[in-house]
Amino acid sequence: MLRSYAQGRWHTAPDDGVELRNAVTGEPVARISSTGLDMAGMLEYGRRVGGPALRRLTFHQRALLCKALAAHLHEHRDEFHALSLATGATRRDAGFDIEGGIITMRVISSKARQQLPNGTVYIDGAPELLSRRGTFVGQHVYTPVRGVAVQINAFNFPVWGMLEKLAPAVIAGVPTIVKPASQTAYLSELVFRRIVESGILPDGAVQLICGSTGDLFTHLTGRDMVAFTGSASTATKLAGHPTVLAEAVRFNAERDSLNCAILGEDAKPGTPEFDLYVDEIVSEITAKAGQRCTAIRRVIAPREYADAVVAALDGRLAGIRIGDPADPESQMGALASQGQRDEVRGAVARLQAVSELVNGSAVTVHGADADIGAFMAPQVLYADDPMAEPLHTVEAFGPVCAVLPYDGTDEAIELARMGGGSLVGSLFTHDPRIARDVVLGVAADHGRLHLVDRDCADEQTGHGSPLPHMIHGGPGRAGGGEELGGVRGVLHFMQRTAVQGPPDLVAAAVGRWMPGAARNETADHPMSRYLEDLEIGDTFVSGPRTITTADVEHFAEFTGDRFYAHLDQDALADHPFFEQRVAHGYLVLSFAAGLFVHSDPGPLLANQGLSELRFGKPVHLGDAIAVALTCAQISPREDQPYGEVRWDVQVTNADGDEVAAYELITAVAKRPSGSPSAAGAAAASAPRHVPGDSR
Ligand code: NAP
Questions:
Q1: pLDDT value at 531 more than 50
Q2: Ligand 1 atom nearest to 212, measured from its CA
Q3: At 612, is the secondary structure helix, strand, or coil?
Q4: Does ligand 1 have an atom closer than 6 angstroms to the CB of 293?
Q5: Whose CA is nearest to atom 11 of ligand 1?
Q6: How does residue 691 score in pLDDT terms, banded at 50, 70 and 90?
Q7: Tell me, what's the pLDDT at 684?
Q8: Model confidence at 499: pLDDT above 80
Q9: Which of 164, 210, 231 to mutate to test the pocket of ligand 1 (most atoms within 8 A of CB)?
Q10: 251 CB near ligand 1 (under 6 Å)
Q11: Main-chain dihedrals φ then ψ at residue 7, nearest 5 degrees
């Protein structure tokens, strides 16, 4: 009996539950039941215990837990692979699920540590200046939702499906209840057991329901969320649950999708793109026996090449060895269950009403019993009328695709869009105009578009593989949801809030200095301070420096930037906004650095970049500039002896007008242990507003 994990304890259902069978041998693998689980108690435990424990940590601390968890699961991958055979998956199939899930967790952890601050609030975009005198500003921020993320997963990715949602939720600081699909829950349960045993996550951060969710949905509140993956029919039912509707529970749905692959009109037989297209289709319908939500279902090919596509598929599929997934020679294993195979056969029969089966009626199985195991040959259908409705509405969730011939790129676009919203579509072309027409024609109906030609052939990641860096999800039929996408996946578990008010209050609330907030001009240079001694608002204000004609001409010679606006007054006669020669923007930045940099060796380690750079008024020859450098945000690294400090840099002219402004990103050392605090020695003066700060 698979066990659930609720309120910090393992729970075994008292009844017999339902038997789960091996997809290949038909033998019992486990029983499943959630009888006796206190669903309301689980939600309450997540909110009361898991949420606060996670929120006590910073983004980076939580991301490091995921990194540690990924390493821990990697150690156990052999036992996961052994059990995965029962799902019918070959070693390669299981690699997508097991290693794919672990890598996804690791990548999300790494991206979070690169792109999120080591704090508890994510700042979304630049401050908005909402008033003329600068006493009222706005800032969008994300904070973790205060409820529980209920994650309901599909049967086809028992590991990846769990980890790709778990990692962003943990990093966001949101406790999770995982509910795997029953059919393959034994593998999810084993991985979950290893997660709990590792002791890496705080109590209450994760719970598991093996079996039905019972009355869980009736106890959801507007603070909870549901991340669902599965069929459109289940999604529709759950999204329409009265509690979900009444409480406006966030509901993200990843549903089925009739993904397409388009062969460009330029990619005739004999071109590299034609061969790549055929390879991709073969790979897509055989990987996981076609049980991937992203698999190619609609093969949209120019009518004149359609026969060649069918013939090429015929040749390639004939060589696919189907059999016992434990046999390394097997290229395709079984479907997840006999029931699943029956469903696929039913869907193929419906498709055959408008198309002809041109490949794959009989199956030869190696090393396993074809009657007991849920084996099926790859099936290729051909539809002379590509517009026939079932081709764009019936999902055969197995090794099945239909070839749809098209006449002209516009028709290919129309066919692609007939899927009613898809997770992914791919295009095989070497013609930039076709790429542009198709991408712009179908983008609004797709979550992801995958372009392939000879140049990326060796490195492209595959039509069907969602990547942790890129979003996964699609509009319309595909569910309208969105997951992954680097830190976007983390933000899905957070609430965006517009915080508006006086700059000092907003800065204090969000942990980032705001334009117009107090600047604390420190007696020592803030760039001479260790990370721990810096505070948001610490400021250095430089004296003025005049930019002379000789400076500009020297800079032009030295760098080679002889743009006429810096050197040639006559050439500016008709210029729309420069009446006289102006200093180079880069010269202004370089002089600004010369004005604010603290030159002695010390805690400041490196300049890591500039962002949000904008030039305001032009700097004319003879103008004087000055700089205010303010510590805006401090983000220590958990596992490094330094952290990241973002500085607000404002460059002004003698009238106090802004000529340049940007954010400078630096690496600053942490104070070595035993070294005294610099802040005590150089006591900061009282905060004050710097004249000329009109932003
Ligand atoms: P499903 O039958 O809709 O089940 C999905 C999940 O919902 C399972 O965990 C299932 O649990 C649960 N569920 C079903 N009824 C429920 C209810 N009344 N209350 C709470 N939970 C309920 O889908 P599936 O057969 O597992 O998966 C295949 C489908 O998923 C395909 O259509 C495929 O295209 C789609 N899919 C989409 C994605 C994507 O990312 N977009 C990824 C993978 C799969 P039980 O198993 O216990 O019933």
A1: yes
A2: 47
A3: strand
A4: yes
A5: 181
A6: very low
A7: 38
A8: yes
A9: 231
A10: no
A11: 50, 40
Tokens for 85? 């055979």
Mean pLDDT of the chain: 94
Edge to edge, the sheet with strand 137-144 lists 122-129, 137-144, 494-501
Specify the DSSP element, H or E, that contains 139.
strand 137-144
- Distance, in Å, from the CA atom of 482 to the CA atom of 491, rounded to the nearest integer, reads 11
Residue 454 backbone dihedrals phi, psi, to 5 degrees = -60, -30
The token pair at 563 is 């743009």
Q: Closest Cα to atom 15, ligand 1: which residue? A: 234
pLDDT digits (tens, 9 = 90+) for 630-649: 999 999 999 899 999 999 99
pLDDT of residue 688: 36
First to last CA, the chain: 64
Nearest to 551 by CA among 625, 616, 627: 625
How many angstroms separate the most distant Cα atoms in the chain?
92
pLDDT band at 319 (very low <50, low <70, confident <90, very high): confident
Looking at residue 292, the DSSP 8-state letter turns out to be -
Residue 152 C-alpha to ligand 1 middle, in angstroms?
7
Contact assessment for residue 615 and residue 654, using Cβ atoms and an 8 Å cutoff? no
Whether the predicted pLDDT of 359 surpasses 90 = no
Give the phi and the psi of residue 536 in degrees, each rounded to 5: -60, 130
Check if the beta carbon of residue 252 is closer than 8 Å to that of residue 471. Answer: no
Strand locations in 502-641, DSSP E?
A: 520-521, 538-541, 545-546, 604-615, 624-636
Please write the tens of the pLDDT for every residue from 50-83.
999 999 999 999 999 999 999 999 999 999 999 9
Q: Is residue 153 in contact with ligand 1, taking CB distance under 6 Å? A: yes
- pLDDT (tens digit per residue) in 81-105: 999 999 999 999 999 999 999 999 9
Q: Which of 31, 228, 293, 335 should be mutated for ligand 1, with most atoms under 8 A from CB? A: 293
Residues with Cβ < 8 Å from 217, sequence gap 6 or more? 238, 241, 243, 244
Say if ligand 1 is within 6 A of residue 181 CB: yes
Strand partners, 629: 540, 649
Report the C-alpha gap between 521 and 154 in whole angstroms.
57
Judged by DSSP in three states, 554 sits in helix
Please indicate whether residue 144, judged by its CB atom, sits closer than 6 Å to ligand 1. no
Ligand 1 centre from 376 Cα, in Å?
Answer: 21
Q: Is 128 a catalytic residue?
A: no
537 is written with which tokens?
A: 């608002």
* Percent composition of the chain: helix, strand, coil (DSSP 3-state, to 5): 35, 25, 40
